[in-house]
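Long-time lurker, first post. I've been practising inverse folding by hand and with some scripts of my own, and I keep getting stuck on stretches where the structure tokens seem ambiguous. Below is the full token string for one chain I'm working on. Before anyone asks, I'm not after the true native sequence, just a reasonable design that respects the backbone. If someone could post their per-position residues I'd love to compare against what I wrote down in my notebook.
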């Protein structure tokens, strides 16, 4: 059947019976497709003059039911049961019949889908909370927790009840014995009830709260987790709804619905067309039928209306009321709402389908007990959480559909159906049956019909009044989703949440991920900003450094060369820890390194956790001693010469230089520190003797020797030579350096050197004088060889020789 939307609205008068028009041929004998007889069916008025009921076609003999009463066990079941529905597009020639027969009145399939989705937010919320927050598991935990603590409370309350009464009250006259007696007799019961209540509460909340335990330290997890659940639930709901719409013909065929036979079509389709015309519908759903001779049932789906063969036993007025009722459900898109709710709670619905099928397939109290014993969490969740949230919209839809039947002129048919049949809509699945159980009782629906008992405009003669009634009936269902304040609020909330989520996600991506911490770290090094680079380290690492001012000055120096062309090529994360792989260039070489990172426990604004580098600076060991070295021109700390000095360094290139004096000079060395490195070597600085220091040292030694030679004594004080007199007193002596020694210098530090003289390079000094003996004064001239040893040091920028042993 091709899509009838948008076809021009048929003239309602075309559906009225005429004196010579008979839309239905008589069925063959033995195949009663409509009532035959003389009396009208109970609750349905007989059509005068043998004509059909209002809106129904004429029939020979008048609309009467066989025997006046329905078959035994045949109870009315009509209305829209929760089934399938989805968004569909306007059918095009290339699309075939895939999207045919969707209700008119919606600009597009998207509007139709949106109308169904946003209409019943309570039902969606109930299905979402019950399914995605694991309410059935929470009920199981509550029961087991309650039983465990209840048993403990029962035992503890019965055995330790004496300790619960304070000593002050226990010793009080009259009151104390009464309290002890009360606690002794009821302590176990009270403890059991208290323990069960506490255990049930703890068990229920544990299942609900444990999945969100990470949100305590990082509130952003709460938002992102909820957003992810909402998006996932919405996506599942939409996909399920669309799938049900696309597969609706096949699904109905599998479940037993079939096309109408010729005789069934001649009976039902004119009534359906007449009802659609009276309701101002330019199109009709596809009408299918299922073989059920007992229950008179009809259900509206997204693009179909399915009736049972038992409907053929009803009068035309009752059938017209039934079809009008279902057309309102079809037109307002109630099935889209129900399908979306079922899709949001799809895991729960699928689990619930099994016990519902077992109880429907094997109707017996024993079966019900066994099924409830195994599936009670799902059954209770569906009955007391999901369905109560969905009930309000379901009941409103039923009342609206009843009002549509009245507006179509079939008040008496609707009243007859409600009065004669005490069972209502049945379903093909557990969900359908559960939703049907939330329909209003028939007495309340009859009361609503009585309140609607006002003059109803004739759809044929009073089209203006009928149009106003139709606008009132259908207008709200479409505008509610298209342009109402509720829809705007929903859209605004979604936009706000999307913007907020997008902003938070952007902030997280830009500033609060491991890559951002690595980028800030190397960016600070590139800017020679030592304090900022140190801020990117974890607090524990910074605390271990102590005073970091010296390291910051080394990074700020112009000789510091940071790594360049830094890029993060990968991050491996394990909870609060991560390892970043970094590619960089240092000293013209392209290198890679791995940096460990750790996420902070505290959160910025309660939402974001920063990442810090969990790698201590590398350690450069420099020789100790009194003469300090410099790193990038910054003096390194001094220490014992044996232990050396440990200098922390951040990644980059550093120039290490020693002290330059008048005696020696130390060539600077460049050391390279790569990220993640623990220790650095290659800073062994060796001072070298200046070329001019040898001549200066020799001059200093000669001055020293000249001073020795100027002493007119046999043994000059502190000098390397002397005259041995053999015990005779020296009357007069003079010294003369005849040959100065050639000294050798061995550096013992940047400012000190050991002075020595080899045997071949010794000097010579001549002593001239006289001695006094028994035989008088005896002159002498002696030559003495000597060597020089001592320490040459720099004092006030000048070389100074200090004689002495090594």
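-- Answer (accepted) --
I ran through it position by position. Result:
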């Amino acid at each position: 059947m091709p899509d009838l939307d948008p076809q021009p609205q048929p003239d309602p008068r075309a559906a009225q019976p005429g004196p010579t028009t008979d839309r239905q041929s008589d069925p063959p004998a033995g195949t009663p497709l409509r009532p035959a007889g003389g009396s009208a069916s109970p609750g349905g008025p007989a059509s005068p003059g043998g004509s059909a009921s209002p809106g129904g076609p004429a029939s020979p003999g008048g609309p009467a039911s066989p025997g006046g009463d329905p078959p035994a066990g045949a109870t009315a079941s009509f209305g829209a049961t929760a089934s399938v529905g989805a968004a569909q597009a306007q059918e095009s020639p290339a699309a075939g019949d895939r999207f045919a027969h969707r209700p008119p009145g919606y600009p597009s399939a998207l509007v139709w889908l949106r109308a169904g989705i946003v209409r019943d937010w309570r039902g969606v919320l109930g299905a979402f909370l019950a399914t995605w927050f694991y309410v059935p598991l929470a009920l199981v935990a509550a029961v087991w927790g309650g039983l465990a603590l209840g048993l403990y409370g029962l035992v503890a309350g019965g055995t330790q009840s004496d300790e619960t009464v304070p000593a002050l009250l226990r010793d009080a006259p009259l009151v104390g014995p009464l309290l002890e007696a009360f606690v002794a007799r009821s302590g176990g019961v009270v403890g059991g009830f208290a323990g069960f209540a506490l255990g049930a509460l703890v068990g229920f909340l544990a299942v609900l709260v444990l999945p969100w335990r990470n949100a305590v330290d990082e509130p952003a997890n709460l938002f992102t987790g909820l957003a992810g659940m909402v998006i996932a639930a919405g996506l599942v709901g939409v996909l399920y709804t669309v799938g049900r719409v696309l597969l609706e013909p096949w699904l109905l065929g599998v479940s037993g619905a079939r096309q109408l036979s010729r005789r069934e079509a001649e009976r039902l389709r004119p009534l359906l067309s007449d009802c659609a015309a009276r309701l101002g519908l330019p199109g009709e759903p596809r009408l299918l039928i299922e073989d059920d001779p007992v229950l008179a049932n009809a259900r509206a789906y997204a693009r179909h209306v399915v009736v049972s063969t038992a409907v053929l036993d009803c009068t035309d007025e009752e059938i017209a009321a039934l079809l009008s009722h279902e057309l309102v459900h079809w037109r307002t898109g109630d099935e889209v709402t129900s399908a979306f709710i079922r899709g949001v709670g799809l895991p729960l619905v699928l689990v619930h389908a099994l016990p519902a099928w077992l109880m429907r397939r094997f109707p017996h109290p024993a079966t019900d007990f066994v099924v409830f014993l195994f599936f009670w969490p799902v059954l209770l969740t569906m009955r007391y959480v999901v369905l109560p949230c969905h009930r309000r919209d379901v009941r409103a839809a039923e009342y609206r559909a009843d009002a549509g039947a009245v507006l179509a002129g079939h008040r008496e048919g609707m009243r007859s159906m409600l009065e004669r049949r005490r069972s209502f809509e049945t379903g093909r699945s557990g969900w359908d049956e559960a939703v049907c159980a939330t329909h209003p009782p028939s007495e309340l629906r009859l009361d609503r019909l009585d309140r609607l008992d006002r003059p109803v405009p004739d759809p044929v003669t009073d089209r203006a009044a009928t149009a106003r009634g139709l606008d009132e009936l259908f207008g709200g269902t479409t505008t509610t989703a298209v342009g109402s304040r509720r829809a705007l609020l929903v859209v605004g909330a979604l936009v706000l949440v999307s913007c907020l989520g997008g902003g938070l996600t952007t902030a997280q991506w830009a500033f609060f991920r491991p890559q951002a911490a690595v980028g800030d770290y190397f960016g600070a090094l590139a800017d020679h900003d030592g304090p900022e680079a140190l801020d990117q380290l974890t607090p524990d690492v910074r605390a271990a450094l102590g005073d970091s001012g010296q390291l910051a000055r080394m990074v700020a120096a112009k000789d510091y060369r940071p790594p360049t062309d830094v890029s993060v090529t990968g991050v491996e994360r394990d909870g609060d820890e991560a390892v970043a792989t970094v590619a960089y260039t240092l000293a013209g070489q392209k290198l890679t390194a791995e940096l460990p990172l750790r996420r902070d426990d505290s959160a910025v604004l309660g939402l974001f956790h920063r990442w810090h580098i969990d790698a201590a600076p590398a350690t450069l060991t420099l020789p100790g001693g009194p003469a300090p070295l410099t790193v990038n021109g910054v003096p390194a700390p001094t220490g014992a010469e044996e232990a050396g000095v440990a200098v922390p360094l951040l990644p980059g290139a550093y120039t290490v230089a020693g002290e330059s004096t008048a005696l020696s000079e130390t060539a600077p060395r460049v050391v390279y520190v790569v990220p993640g490195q623990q220790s650095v070597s290659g800073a062994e600085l060796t001072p070298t003797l200046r070329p001019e220091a040898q001549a200066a040292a020799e001059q200093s030694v000669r001055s020293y020797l000249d001073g020795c030679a100027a002493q007119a004594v046999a043994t000059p004080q502190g000098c390397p030579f002397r005259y041995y007199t053999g015990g005779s007193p020296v009357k007069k002596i003079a010294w003369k350096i005849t040959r100065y020694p050639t000294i050798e210098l061995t550096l013992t530090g940047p400012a000190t050197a050991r002075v020595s003289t080899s045997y071949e390079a010794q000097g010579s000094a001549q002593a001239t004088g006289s001695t006094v003996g028994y035989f008088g004064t005896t002159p002498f001239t002696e030559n003495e060889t000597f060597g020089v040893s001592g320490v040459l040091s720099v004092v006030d920028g000048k070389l100074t020789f200090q004689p002495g042993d090594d």
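A couple of notes from the structure itself: The mean pLDDT is 76. The longest strand covers residues 564-574. Happy to go over any region you disagree with.
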